[in-house]
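Open question from group meeting: does this chain pack into something compact, or does most of it stay loose? Before anyone orders reagents, we agreed to write out a predicted structure and look at it together. Recording both the input and the output here so the notebook holds the full record.
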Amino acid sequence: MKTQKIILIIIFIFSISQIANAQLQKAEFQASGLTCSMCSNAINKALKTVPFIETVNTDLNKNIFEIIFKKNVPVDLDAIKKKVEDAGFSIAKFWVIADLHDQKINNDEHISIDGLSFDFMNVKAQTLNGSQRLQLIDKNYIPSKEFKKYSTSTTMPCYQTGMTSSCCKSKDGTLASGNRIYHVTI
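Structure tokens returned:
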């Protein structure tokens, strides 16, 4: 009985430290195809129906949308992209802002942030602390020309598909093939 309690306490402490280690705060994206304020209004209305989005702020001069995430609600970045596309527009650039604490990163290495898998590309080995702006560089999150440029800098097939494969391994070895993975750079 004591052993079970000790194990539960260790698991609890480990899970809290993992949660506190990295957390998504918000996302920002630049939309393309907007011609007037009614266009941005269509995107705003669509995004406000997403359950994990708390608020949406818009900079009409730059066509930048800032999305604040609700706390303790799972985030799906592809759902944001889909809502923008369903409103008749596309994403030109997309950034995720995450609060990281002593997070070691390496090129072509995966980490988990709020249950989402991220692969860092074109980065130096370093430790990240505080609020970090990570640019998504997956297909349909950046212009085709940029995607093609990044494609030449990796041999990992997950960059082409956006899904983990047998080559994808996280530090703790928990990534399974066929899960969504987002590719980011700093």
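Observations to bring back to the group:
The chain is about 30% helix and 35% strand.
The domain at 23-185 is CATH 3.30.70.100 (Alpha-Beta Plaits).
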